[in-house]
Design brief:
single chain, alpha+beta, eleven-stranded antiparallel beta sheet, eight-stranded parallel beta sheet, 20% helix, globular
């Protein structure tokens, strides 16, 4: 791996790295380019912004190169030369033909960061910097406050706020040339399910259902990580990538070059921070809905799970637990939640954690708003707290702690952390450009444009840092709707927002999750079954409206929810997919989500749901060991086939299957038995599956061995998702399907599944399940190796200070059958012929 920092500075001053960069990180090389003044015209209008270079000198001065390899080619352009011609990028809504001459800055020399090395590389062709004013909203006189009720919560607007100038910055535009056959991945999570960012444009801004990440990767073996916290626009046309940075003080980025795609992701974490381990219970099943209305209802749900012997690790309290007229107040209504501590004690006795939804906005009338107002820590809407202010973050935590954390709450659901969603209204969805424009305008009214993409990051930092002070031995869990690179350090789980229940959305979510994983974020999940299940009638029931049209995003296909067999089938498929996500969580509105809402024991949907939840717990020792590798080795769990098989054309085409550890997961993304309204279908109960070449594969359910490098027609009745495990895999499992992950499970026994056919290795990991002792060696890690030719299993010497298991049961699967046995282990290397 090789990492180069490139800085394009407008004034000769090389500033420090931004907040997303680890302070102790040092790149292998640093290149600093100073831009010279360059007069150019900027034409704003309906067609966007067009920039034309005019006569004048251009120089690129390489001021510092710490190690050989990077070169600037081309030097100064001759007078009158158009260095990169005219570029069209989205405009900001200015009037047609609003032309102005701008004294900007330009670097035109070609920067080849891979020169003289064995690595592939992108070529920086140009960097243009244009002056930009930074403004913020301020209140004139006595605030005139209006509260608007929206699907995304109550929003406060101050009608007499106005913009005031607060600083100056630059708009930056980078242009890179790339190879014709490279696939481009990353950029976080969006809505459209794009698997390869060639020939397209992406707007990178925080929004419900959009979580931008400032990084993109190439299958040629390089990645660009932008050191910027502002809004951005990415576009690729004709083998040229253009990135527009809305507001920066300098244009800085990192080039990561590696031998494998996984190395690129490891490089992202090396630059932005290691992913913290979540508590063990967070890898189990999380049950949620919009919404439980009392502590008694939560207690009854926990009791029902126990009565039915269905494992569950966490129940979630969604919004509106607060008192009437106290939107966002982090104090539960005492009529409906009279004794929070009694509730959490009951849940903990059952091995269940409690997660609570908290919002960054709090309206007038509540205690939290009053405290923030008196401290001067609210934005000019007098509702949303300023997460960039350390004292505001401390006060926010005290509000979380006063009743919830002190009352035994285990985890936070930091909802609506964009924290503004102005496009979430109207019957018709606006164009991507319009959505970006109105969101950018709203975000930069309240936040410095230079940091408009990182509100959620600072919010997560406040939760993490202050909980660590209050309870150093409790791992932080923060389910948050928005995030950014480096949020992985803070115990965050990102989720895809308020998606709708359609088969097409399910299919697109698979791609979006893989793009998030490619961006370096290991913990991502979604609302199993989708948030919005119905459409017009569901919206009317929820809102109480007698007439009108539902908003554009409320477009699920199933008005009757769990009464619709079409939805039950979709939900089952979603849950099968969700079993193999980093975090497994069911949630949504319009219809309940608990397993028994889909039938009773003996019914197809109920039995399948319960079987896959139990499969999650059966595989949990394997999932938890993968989580250790994510932390220790900056590894990936979920990933596109391109990460392991990038030379295969078929791997690039297989967008609806993915790798999770050593599993090949093949979700079913189309109906077979029922459509909306329980309309019967008669589709074949199969789906095509591509088995990558170079490996053998076992059907995980039947244990049949299959040769890779071909497409098969896999059996896929509703009760079964095609699932395969790679030859050479070693899986720690739990046949007891232990449901209580809240309390420490210090067993003396481990069970292994071994799949012959190829050499393989894995590290089995155990710890107490909570606390940060793992960072100081309080764990047991045992390296496992399978040698195919000699049929030998080796257990390496135990690493760490935690008690290791002394009995190791195994089942060996081969092409012809299986065999079982048991090994006694004393912590020293042990080899056994199986």
């Amino acid at each position: 791996m090789r990492i180069i920092r490139v800085v394009c500075t407008p004034d000769g001053i090389c500033r420090e790295s931004g907040d997303i960069i680890e302070k102790d990180f040092t790149p292998d090389e640093c290149v600093v380019l100073t831009a010279e003044p360059k007069e150019h015209y900027v034409t704003q209008g309906a067609g966007g912004v067009r920039e034309d270079t005019v006569a004048g000198g251009v120089t690129a001065d390489v001021r510092a190169v710490n190690a050989g390899g990077s070169t600037v080619v081309g030097g100064a352009a001759a007078d009158g030369d158009a260095v990169s011609g005219s570029t069209v990028v989205p405009g900001n809504g200015a009037a047609e033909n609003d032309e102005r001459k701008v004294q900007g800055r330009r670097i035109a020399g070609r920067l080849e960061t891979g020169a003289g090395t064995e690595y592939a590389f992108p070529v920086q062709e140009a960097c243009v910097m244009t002056p930009k004013k930074i403004t913020r909203y301020a209140i004139e006189g006595k605030a005139r406050v209006a509260v608007k009720k929206t699907v995304d919560g109550e929003r406060t607007v101050v009608e007499n706020a106005r913009e005031i100038p607060v600083g100056e910055a630059w708009e930056g535009k980078l242009t890179f040339s790339i190879g014709e056959k490279e696939h481009i991945l990353g950029l976080g999570q969006h809505e459209d399910g794009v698997a390869n960012y060639r020939g397209c444009r992406q707007y990178l801004y925080q929004n419900n259902m959009q979580i931008p990440m400032p990084v993109f990767l190439s299958t040629a073996g390089w990645a660009i990580l932008l050191d910027a916290d502002c809004l951005m626009i990415y576009e690729e046309r004709d083998n040229r990538i253009t990135v527009t940075l809305d507001a920066v003080e300098q244009v800085a980025y990192y080039v990561i070059q590696g031998d494998t795609m996984a190395e690129l992701v490891a490089g992202i974490r090396k630059i932005t921070g290691k992913a913290a381990m979540l508590p063990k219970w967070a890898y189990g099943y999380i049950q949620s809905r919009e919404r439980y209305c009392s502590q008694e209802e939560i207690r009854e749900v926990a009791e029902e799970f126990g009565k039915r012997k269905i494992p569950v690790s966490c129940l979630v309290q969604d919004w509106q637990y607060w008192g009437e007229g106290k939107w966002g107040d982090k104090h539960p209504d005492k009529v409906r939640y009279p004794d929070l501590k009694a509730l959490t004690n009951t849940l903990h006795d059952r091995g269940i954690s409690l997660m609570v939804s908290v919002w960054p906005n709090m309206n007038k009338g509540g205690q939290d708003n009053q405290e923030m107002m008196e401290a001067g820590k609210l934005y000019a809407n007098l509702s949303t707290y300023d997460a960039f202010d350390e004292e505001a973050r401390e006060l926010y935590w005290k509000q979380c702690e006063s009743e919830f954390f002190s009352g035994g709450t285990d985890a936070w659901w930091c909802d609506s952390t964009e924290p503004f969603t102005p496009d979430w209204n109207g019957a018709q969805k606006r164009t991507d450009r319009e959505r970006y424009q109105i969101s950018a305008a709203e975000l930069t009214r309240y936040m410095d444009a230079r940091k408009a993409n990182v509100y959620a990051l600072y919010h997560a930092k406040g939760i993490h840092d202050n909980q660590r002070k209050a309870a150093p031995e409790t791992r932080v869990v923060n389910l948050t709707r928005s995030g950014y690179l480096s949020s992985q350090k803070y115990g965050t789980i990102l989720w895809s927002g308020d998606i709708a229940a359609t088969w097409d959305v399910l299919k697109r979510q698979i791609v979006e999750g893989l793009q998030m994983a490619a961006s370096g974020i290991p913990y991502w999940n979604l609302d199993i079954g989708a948030f919005f299940v119905g459409n017009l009638e569901s919206w009317k029931r929820w809102s109480g409206a007698k007439e009108g049209t539902q908003p554009w995003f409320w477009h699920g296909d199933f008005e009757e929810g769990v009464k619709d067999k079409g939805y039950c089938e979709l939900y089952v498929r979603w849950l099968q997919y969700g079993t193999f996500l980093p975090v497994m969580r069911s949630h949504g509105t319009d219809t309940p989500r608990e397993p028994w809402q889909f039938g009773e024991e003996g019914g197809l949907y109920y039995d399948t749901i319960v079987r896959y939840i139990r499969l999650r717990y059966y595989l949990l020792p394997y999932f938890y060991s993968l989580a250790y590798q994510v932390w220790r080795e900056d590894a990936m769990t979920m990933r596109s086939l391109l990460f392991d098989y990038r030379e295969e054309e078929k791997a690039a085409e297989a967008e609806d299957e993915f790798l999770f550890g050593d599993f090949l997961v093949c979700p079913v993304t189309f109906p077979m038995e029922y459509g909306p309204g329980s309309v019967p279908l008669s589709e074949e109960k199969k789906r095509p599956v591509y088995l990558p070449a170079g490996d053998g594969w076992y059907d995980y359910e039947t244990k049949e061995y299959l040769v890779g490098g071909r497409e098969i027609s896999a059996a896929a009745p509703v009760e079964r998702m095609p699932l395969y495990v790679k030859a050479g895999s070693i899986l720690p499992v739990d046949s007891r399907e232990t449901a209580d992950l809240y309390h420490e499970q210090q067993g003396e026994e481990v069970e292994l599944e071994i799949y012959a056919g190829k050499d393989g290795s894995f590290t089995c990991y155990l710890d107490s399940g909570n606390g940060y002792g793992y960072q100081q060696g309080e764990y047991a890690a045992v390296g496992l190796q399978w040698k195919e030719e000699s049929r030998e299993l080796t257990l390496g010497a135990a690493e760490g200070e935690y008690a290791y298991p002394v009995r190791w049961k195994y089942t060996l699967y081969t092409e012809t059958g299986s065999s079982s046995g048991e090994l006694a282990y004393a912590g020293q290397e042990l080899t056994a012929k199986l």
